[in-house]
Design a protein that fits this description.
Rossmann fold, 2 domains, 44% helix, 12% strand
């Protein structure tokens, strides 16, 4: 049996191996943070790259729904976790950041914390850091999806359901994805065809998206919406161009990209602003 001296050395060794307690972040340093691991830390983001919410054209219903949900949460009222899913480049992540900015503009305190998909296993540690704080936090995970052998989706349940403790009242979770059920369709079909109990094999992963109270769909934009986006950028940033030239150039630009989207509209506008000598700052303002 180990003597007292040996036990003391073991205890001291274990103490040295244990990670140091995470220092309390200075949440007054910024309104936006990025969560990092190894070591765990919240890094403040002094200036977020985003655009004004009024410039997000063609997604009015999703814009209004998400903004109202975010305002409710910032006011301390009940609010839902939100999944923004659908076509690439249609403003899903831009809307989340713009909604946060609009909440701040209206004078309501709200912190946004960006969480990378690969860091989902650490989310329980992040929630413990935020739980009980006076501030309210919007956790944001961009481009969320899961592959066949990906077990990260189990960690996401800690955010959506919160386990035995429940999700902290001061935390809400927004995610964007190109997939409505967060997993490829062929993966769902493969699970159904190869499992002894097909329904149970699929349900655990598919039902993950059901845990989001808000599902907001984003679909490819029409040509009129695409041109309206560009015109809105031009008007907002003072880039002068006649309607005929804008239409001809913008249609040619999207033809070379093979698609229309808000991202393609912004890319064309960036090129146009550069040719017209208009500088854009990192946050998208002139």
């Amino acid at each position: 049996m180990p003597n007292r001296k040996t036990l003391k050395r073991i205890a001291e060794a274990l103490e040295r191996m244990a990670p140091a307690p995470l220092p309390s972040p200075d949440f007054d340093a910024a309104d936006a943070f990025v969560w990092h691991v190894e070591p765990d830390r919240l890094t403040p983001v002094p200036q977020v790259s985003r655009m004004e919410i009024d410039l997000l054209v063609g997604i009015n219903r999703s814009r209004d729904t998400l903004l109202e949900n975010t305002l409710q949460f910032a006011r301390g009222l009940p609010a839902n976790n939100a999944l923004l899913w659908g076509a690439r480049g249609m403003g899903k992540s831009s809307l989340v950041k713009a909604a946060h900015a609009e909440v701040l503009r209206q004078g309501l305190p709200l912190k946004i914390v960006e969480l990378q998909r690969e860091d989902l296993p650490s989310v329980s540690r992040l929630l413990n850091l935020l739980r009980g704080r006076a501030e309210r936090f919007l956790l944001f995970c961009d481009d969320l999806s899961f592959s066949h052998d990906d077990q990260h989706y189990k960690s996401l349940k800690a955010v959506l359901d919160g386990g035995i403790e429940g999700r902290p009242d001061n935390v809400v979770f927004y995610a964007t994805s190109n997939r409505r059920h967060l997993m490829p369709r062929d993966m769902i079909e493969n699970e159904r065809s190869s499992s002894i109990n097909p329904s149970e094999a699929v349900e655990e992963k598919v039902s993950l998206s059901d845990r989001f109270g808000l599902w907001l769909g984003f679909h490819p934009c029409s040509q009129d919406e695409y041109l309206a986006m560009i015109r809105g950028y031009c008007d907002s940033y003072g880039v002068e161009i006649d309607a005929e030239t804008l239409r001809a150039e913008a249609i040619e630009w999207q033809a070379t990209r093979g698609a229309r989207s808000g991202r393609v509209a912004w890319q064309y506008f960036t090129d146009l602003a550069g040719r017209r000598g208009v500088k854009l700052s990192d946050d998208g303002t002139a």
